[in-house]
Amino acid sequence: MSSYVIRRLLQGAGLLLLVSMIGFAILHLAPGGPLSQFAAGGDMTQEDLDRVAEQLGLNRPLPIQYLDWLWRMLQGDWGVSYRDQQPVLSVIGSHLGATLELMLTSTLLAMAIGAWVGILGAIRRYSLFDGLATIGAMIALSIPTFWFGLVVIYVFSVGLEWLPSGNRYTIGDESLANRIHHLIGPCMVLALVSTAVWSRYMRSSMLDVIHQDYIRTARSKGIPERRILIHHAVRNALLPMITITGLHLPTLLSGALVTETVFTWPGMGRLFLDSINYRDYPVVMGILMFTAVLVLLGSLLADLLYHVADPRLGANPT
Amino acid sequence: MSASSSVVAPAAPPQPARRRGGALRRFARHKLAVFGAGIILFLTLACAIGPYLLPFTDTYIDIMQRFAPPFSGAHVLGTDALGRDMLARLLMAGRISLLVGFSAMAISMVIGITVGIVSGYYGGVLGTVLMRFVDAMLCFPSIFLLLAISALINASVSSIIILIAVTSWMEVARIVEAQIRALRARDFAVAAEALGASDRRVMFRELLPNAIAPIVVAATLNVAHAILAESYISFLGYGIQPPTPSWGNMLDSAQSYLTSAPWLAILPGAAITLAVTSFNFIGDGLRDALDPRMDGR
């Protein structure tokens, strides 16, 4: 098991190296480059710009800049934001909580609803409920997240006035109730796609399981259908969902960026968009790397958990 | 977008060709797919012909008629903040959005198929390097990648098409690579090689046609993905720039008028959802039709 983990971690590290090269290349080969923000202000002469480039080390050959950045990053120095001179890691850290809060709650919501819809759809395959759930999931996957956000704001904030239309809490009132009240809208919006994905995969996984021999055996032993479904089928059908949750992480992060923008939620996605607007390269690069690490860790954890949770695969995955 | 691409079902094991007969019939049995195809046909025709039949152009500004609600007067679907006819704008925007969807799909398929077929056929170091590159690109959440690049280029219709294409070919490459790798060990491929066929002939004339079913499905879903991607980056301000309307950038300013003129937000969003849902339905139907063993899962 440990050798497998080590191999996966090494593979992940190699992949991250490639990821960092791609990210660095995208940001630095583009016309304009990191200096364009300073140039756009109009306060600087060409001389000033040259000096800034010199001081920030932007006039060196790109591979040197990359290796320098990489070496510092490995030592925990991710650079400072061009906007306010704060260290990149602390800028990301101060926005991370809001994003994780949003992603976690919406994932839990999506799991609860999606699993239930999927299980019911598989048990009553081709029923009216199954048909509607299939169509509903397809539509949910096709709705632009930001548009669904606008619809939720229009219905629940503008129309019914039940929910606030943005922000994480009312200024001056950071009570739990107030935070939850603000969380409902964005959580609902971000959970939409995940719920659809969960319901589809859960249905498919459940259909695989309920045609297995051990379910037939359980039936022939006269175990009540309800008990078979809960104790034998659902438990096994849930296993592959661990992998799905890991693989779904990039989509979830993308959704979070859009949801945060619509609901002015002060998370990492909004920070990324703001940093792009400001050409704040160190922060943009930092967030790109951070999300890549999250995605890789997510898939590694999902694989490991899957092996731990399913004894049939043995404790020593290869 | 992101959303639709993540639910591409695991590629089915390759099947030899010569069982296409009945695929059309199976597709026709898939009511939602037929419905989707009908909607796409209708949308395409409406966007192509519609603008010529309307009394207003999409750029005609009538400031006295601004914020006219739908079904209220001369403007069937109302007007926007500058008094431009919403229906005319929706149809012209549809031209752009569908154009972006189809073109980005075509380019991403060319890249994805090429990378997949080369790494699947040759394997070895080249194949490993290419597929690790695919893995690395997939580590970036798609919107983050789109935004990182889009902020740095001049937004025009053609650059947006290329931008979406270069960020959405990876899934196709994976599907094709897996198919080709499995197919090239089969007897017919080995026989073709033994007969002295060139690499290119084996790749494109022998192997590729046998891997076409999952490619067609992926292509359909990629159109849906591209339309969504365009709407996301346009909504975030980095996509198609006004005055050229697209379904995405029509929504760009709609949030400010949500209270007073909700139709500005509802109509383009409904158009995107309708088009994307239809492509997803078609993709689903094609998957069932081209691979009968999937059995509706």
Automatic annotation (TrEMBL), chain A:
Membrane topology classification: Multi-pass membrane protein
Domain ABC transmembrane type-1 residues, every copy: 96-306
Localization terms from the record: Cell membrane
GO biological process entries: transmembrane transport
SUPFAM superfamilies named in the record: MetI-like
Lineage: Bacteria, Pseudomonadati, Pseudomonadota, Alphaproteobacteria, Acetobacterales
Organism: Teichococcus aestuarii
Short name of any one Pfam family annotated for the protein: BPD_transp_1_N
The entry's keywords: Cell membrane, Membrane, Transmembrane, Transmembrane helix, Transport
UniProt-listed InterPro entries: BPD_transp_1_N, MetI-like, MetI-like_sf
Coiled-coil ranges (or none): none
Protein name, as recorded: Diguanylate cyclase
Family indicated by similarity: Belongs to the binding-protein-dependent transport system permease family.
Transmembrane regions listed in the UniProt entry: 12-30, 102-123, 135-160, 180-198, 237-263, 283-306
CDD domains tied to this protein: TM_PBP2
TrEMBL record, chain B:
Cellular component, GO annotation: plasma membrane
Membrane topology: Multi-pass membrane protein
Organism domain of life: Bacteria
Signal peptide segment: none
Annotated TM spans: 32-54, 96-121, 211-240, 260-283
One annotated GO biological process: peptide transport
InterPro entries: BP-dependent_transpt_permease (IPR050366), MetI-like (IPR000515), MetI-like_sf (IPR035906), OppC_N (IPR025966)
ABC transmembrane type-1 domain residues: 94-283
Annotated stretches, region: Disordered: 1-20
Keywords linked to the UniProt accession: Cell membrane, Membrane, Peptide transport, Protein transport, Transmembrane, Transmembrane helix, Transport
Lyase in keyword set: no
UniProt subcellular location: Cell membrane
The keyword Amino-acid biosynthesis belongs to this UniProt entry's keyword annotation: no
Family under the similarity heading: Belongs to the binding-protein-dependent transport system permease family.
Designated name of the protein: Peptide ABC transporter permease
Organism lineage string: Bacteria, Pseudomonadati, Pseudomonadota, Alphaproteobacteria, Acetobacterales
